[in-house]
Design the sequence.
């Protein structure tokens, strides 16, 4: 199956916490980073997700925000997925930009405004933290 979602990162489920309607699924990405997906309990069942299941974490580029300063600890920000990386390429148009980030052997693409690229001073070699809400992470079984 082909998808338009650029960010498709392989990993393994490390924890599943299921509630009445929703669940959180923690995934250890192949590069060693952790990411959490908030999906429906029905999706957990339909996909047969359990600890050890191989998955791909899928994230649209428009759902990836970038920070250039420290984003430490869990206080002060509700976004739990914070993945450190280094910018490897920036393609800027008049309004929007595509920023490719190396995240320990994997890659993420962020679609952000050209103004944000300028304000943050993003260029190849810039250290960043990719921020992704758990509700914006989908999972696909491998």
Sequence:
């Amino acid at each position: 199956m082909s998808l338009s979602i650029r960010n498709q990162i392989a990993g393994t489920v490390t924890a599943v916490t299921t509630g009445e309607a929703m669940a959180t699924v923690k995934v250890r990405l192949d590069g060693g980073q952790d990411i959490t997906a908030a999906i429906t309990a029905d999706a957990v069942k339909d996909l047969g997700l359990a600890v050890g299941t191989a998955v791909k974490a899928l994230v649209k580029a428009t759902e990836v925000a970038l920070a250039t300063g420290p984003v430490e600890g869990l206080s002060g920000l509700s976004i739990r997925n914070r993945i450190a990386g280094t910018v490897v390429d920036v393609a800027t148009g008049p309004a929007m930009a595509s920023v490719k980030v190396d995240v320990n052997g994997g890659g993420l693409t962020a679609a952000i405004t050209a103004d944000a690229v300028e304000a943050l001073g993003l260029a190849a070699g810039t250290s960043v933290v990719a921020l992704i809400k758990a509700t914006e992470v989908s999972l696909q079984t491998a």
Observations:
- The longest strand covers residues 7-18.
- The first helix runs from residue 41 to 47.
